[in-house]
Amino acid sequence: MKKIKCLIVDDELLALDILETYIAQTDFLKLEGRCQSVVEAISMLQGRKADLIFLDIQMPGISGIQFLRTMPDIPQVILTTAYPNYAIEAFELNVLDYLLKPFSYERFLKSITKFLGQKDSLPVNEGIDPGPESFYVRSEKQMVRIVLDDILYIESLRNHVFIHLQNGSSVKTLNTINNIGESLPAENFIRIHRSYIVPLRKISQFSAAELKIGHQPLPIGRNYRSFVSQALYGKVIIPKGQH
To answer: How far is CA 218 from the centre of its chain?
Structure first.
């Protein structure tokens, strides 16, 4: 399979590094260049060909949206941003996808399938080795990799989200629990409260109003109880003759 030539445009070095890592993990993608401004990207595109651009929106000088409006014959674009409020405008400009930071490698691959014109799967036998599913969040001025299997539970507190991990540590990030939840596979994680998301397989006990992750009790919100019950009671083994 011919490799897809990719260009990354983002003013944030850590964001550039994350996308470069994702591209390097995917055998049929090739990084053609990385730029920290739209002006730099325009200059690079004059001398190099790109099939796909990963484009940030908010950058100094010319924004990603302005770039899309003014650049003729632009390659396919996947927007990468921490701001959800540009989504409608972006799709009016016919972008391929809209990746809301932080996004996992799995979510990144779903965007690539759109480029390939497929719905559910990537080409087989292409040497893809994503390793443990993960995503990155900003914490204390750096990007921290969160492996999904390491998550005990996720807690929202005021303007921050705390991701509690199996090793006893917690990662604090200035984010929303809704945004983090969108980066998680729905078949493996469940929202149990406006302030909590938990991995289904880490639930050790549950009742109508509470569940436990190991020995840690967590409340099930009143508005979430019906949804949680449907997800969990289907896994209960009921003795014959009992209802």
So the answer is: 25
CATH of 139-233, one of 3.20.20.140, 3.40.1280.10, 2.40.50.1020, 2.60.40.10: 2.40.50.1020
Q: How far apart are CA 191 and CA 113, in angstroms?
A: 27
Residue with tokens 């109508």: 208
Amino acid at 205: Q
CA 68-73-77 angle, 5° bins: 50
Residue 183's contacts (CB-CB under 8 Å, 6 or more residues apart) are 100, 102, 103, 104, 107, 135
**CATH code assigned to 4-116:** 3.40.50.2300
How confident is the model over 121-155, as pLDDT tens digits? 344 334 344 445 877 777 877 778 888 999 999 99
Q: Which helix (H) or strand (E) holds 22?
A: helix 13-24
Residue with tokens 């950058």: 59
Q: Would you mind telling me the total number of residues written for the chain in this entry?
A: 243
pLDDT digits (tens, 9 = 90+) for 76-130: 899 998 887 877 777 778 888 888 888 888 889 888 888 876 433 344 334 344 4
The letter for the amino acid at 24 is A
HSE-CB at 32 with a 13 A cutoff on CA atoms is 20
Output the CA torsion 232→137→32→62 (10° steps). 120
β-partners of residue 154 are 163, 197
